[in-house]
Design goal:
With about 150 residues, the chain is α+β, with helices and mostly antiparallel strands. It is built from four helices and eight strands.
Length: about 150
């Protein structure tokens, strides 16, 4: 469990009621990942939603020629493994910590259950995920446009 006030710092949770924040805090914990550790690979079950408290995670795609291409570098405050909230609940790329990284780790299954019981929580979270995806899609387009 973490403090609900930790969650309130991040826009994904800032508009939620105190009771909802407490519920989410109960299903969360702080974890640390060492630099160089791969956190997830493409197509793996997306069992947790993460917020980067401090650190850095590269998001990469595996190209057809076997090359890994970094399409985004996530930093303090960024949401990681958004796909844990959207079916089929599988990761869409590879994530590797490039620095020691401290995270809030939230059980995605429990968060989805809460969203079912309290649709306002689900709605507000999915609005934030949609904004995040729009931003990251634009970043990926810029990265791909720079390819020779």
């Amino acid at each position: 469990m973490i403090s609900p006030e930790i969650l309130r710092r991040y826009p994904y949770f800032a508009t939620l009621r105190d009771e909802s924040l407490k519920d989410i805090a109960m299903m969360a914990e702080e974890v640390t990942v060492p630099a160089g550790q791969r956190m997830f690979g493409e197509g793996e079950p997306a069992d947790f939603l993460y917020i980067i408290i401090r650190g850095e995670v590269d998001i990469q795609y595996l190209l057809g020629n076997g090359e890994f291409r970094t399409v985004d570098t996530l930093v303090d405050g960024d949401l990681l493994v958004w796909s844990s909230m959207i079916e089929p609940y599988r990761t869409t790329g590879f994530g590797t910590a490039t620095k020691p990284t401290q995270l809030v780790k939230i059980s995605a299954c429990k968060l989805r259950d809460l969203s079912q019981r309290d649709p306002l929580v689900g709605y507000r979270l999915l609005i934030q995920v949609a904004k995040l995806l729009a931003h990251r899609l634009e970043g990926a387009r810029v990265q791909l446009a720079a390819v020779d």
